[in-house]
Input
Amino acid sequence: MSPAPRTPPDLLAAALRRDAATPLVTAYDDATGERVELSGTTLANWVAKTANLLQDEFDVGPGSTVALALPVHWQTAAVLLGVWSCGATVLDTAAEDDGRLDAADVVLAAQDRLAPLEEQDLPDLLGLSLHPLGLGMTGYAGPARDFALEVRAHGDVFSPYVPPDPAAPGLLAGGVELTLGGLVAAATELAGRLGVTDGDRLLVDDTTAVEAGPVAWLLAPLAAGASIVLCRNADPAALGGRAAAERVTATLGVRIEGFRELGRPA
Output
């Protein structure tokens, strides 16, 4: 029997043991028409490369804080799990301003949020294009290093210098502070309370995901053995057909006729 997950990277490892080949995260952006599908293996590859980049180039490890000025996105999922794989703390500003970023050791920001950050006295700054194919930033000539270009050079397997400690800080977001182990406990409890079950395919829109935070949109599905259909800039008229095409079994924060809405009485 496999040991119980103790930190967020253990949740991803458990997903890989269950089924590494089927879609784990499917992401849509209705503003651009993008659709990206990541199997467990592909997501784990991005996570490992991200963790290697942070550890090897920026000395990220236990005691480090990595700030994210990123929207809810499939690349954000990889970055979150990459930071936690290093045993470091995520300072998540998805739903806030950027006022606390100077408290971090490294800042990863979407390209459209870089300009004001460049005027601050920040530590190392990485920019993400959020291109659907993982390509680098275009039309950018500022000081931030390009995440997509940097991460490609790093390995597909990650071994932390120091294993993540479940008792170490894991997430700072608004007024929430959770340890790495607390993230797993919170995700497991939330999945049970919402009724997420093993094998569920969960559709969540980015507005709900920003409000609920990464424990809800990323870790709770992983803890329950579910996969994720993440919709940015969701077109309400498209969601019914999409849910059917993607074989969605439940939704979070979105009401679609004929589909189970988590957190609501049947």
About this structure: The radius of gyration is 17 Å. The chain is about 35% helix and 20% strand. The longest helix spans residues 40-58.
